[in-house]
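To whoever is on call:

I kicked off a structure prediction for a single chain this morning and the downstream step that reads the tokens threw a length-mismatch warning. I double-checked the sequence; it's 433 residues and nothing unusual in it as far as I can see. Pasting both halves so you can look.
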Amino acid sequence: MNLLKKTFLKLGIRNKNARRTNELNQLYKFLGIDNGANKDTLSEATYFSCLKVLSESVGKLPLKILKHTDKNGVFTVRDHALYTVLHDRPNPYMTASTFWSTVEFNRNHYGNAYVWIQGAGDNLSLWILPSTDVQVWYDDGKILSAQPDVYYIYTGGGKTFKFGSEEILHFRTSNTFDGLMGVPIQDQLKTTLTGAVKSQKLLEKMYESGFTAKAVLQYTGNLNDENVKAFVKGIESYSKGELSEEGIENIIPIPLGSQLTPLNVKLADNQFIEVKQYTALQIASAFGIKPYQIGDYTKSSYASTEIQQLSFYVDTLLYIIKQYEEEITYKLLSHEEIESGLYVKFNVNVILRADLSTQIDTLSKGVAGFIYTPNEARAMLDLESKPGGDKLLGNGASIPVELAGTQYIKTDTSEGEDPKKDAKKEGEEEDNG
């Protein structure tokens, strides 16, 4: 343990990572779960697919800086110093899509993702810290400052670096015991993922053995242990196809007086496919992934792709991107900027976009209903603006809400006069004139 960590322990500052790990280990021990059984969860196809879906979904959403106007409107602040960093290039080596998808991948797999905020203003850049090399320490005893603060200890290249809470963007999973450290999804699915990995290994072994299960070899006579091993090894080399290079593939020679009886294991009898499918649905459910997104269309009940995407956004992505927006807005924008109406927001329209015919019909109604200007509607279709297109247009029959119903109010007339006669008299005077 290095000097910095010794100093923190001496001051009584608690390591949140160690505390969470100890709590989980105690829970596993109580439930009888082997904590070290699952060493390679990424090899499980469904688990990896769910990570891929979530990371790519976040990576494809453009991140923008917006501002509320005095008239309750909103516009994009493209000239802000952070706009290019968030929208295009967080650092010289990563695009925004790669950066945010990597953050999301780490957040789900490790439970927490850490981004170092380097510099400020025009010189600001964002760097992803390896989640396995970061420890979180909490100064709840107010030893280092008057206010309790969270410190992030990063160890890399043989050196240790200490960052305050304002220097790190911390994204965690929705499952957390203390509101600070997120629980990795692989920890939540420890037993489920262990079974899924074992089932995959079973299939691999069956492929290697040519789908030949264990067999009973009966022979006459007495053989010592060494001769039995050599005898069995010879027959097994034939059954596994290890002599295929010599042209021997399908024939297994059995000595006289011997009999080979296979112990067949049928996957159908053990409902292997059904169990594997149920396991896949459990894993997807923990991520908030819909069955159709992992290739299960047996119970698809959505009317259209647009409704599918809307359901995925509301049920799964909304919480995730809201966490990103809140953390980025608080850590990267100053208090004065936030007070002036600045905030960070993902553009979710890219995943909720309908087909071209529906888009045009919707935008046309928006323009006719005084919601969009023609140029605003054209911008949503990636078309250039046109002269005169910045005015609100609409149906000529529309009237302001404060004048609604005035067309049904009769005009007052003088007492004793007949409006119909007056109108007829005016018409005769015009004809004579």
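Update from on-call: the warning came from a stale cache, not from the record. Cleared it. Sanity check on the structure: The chain has three domains: 3-187, 193-272, 354-407.
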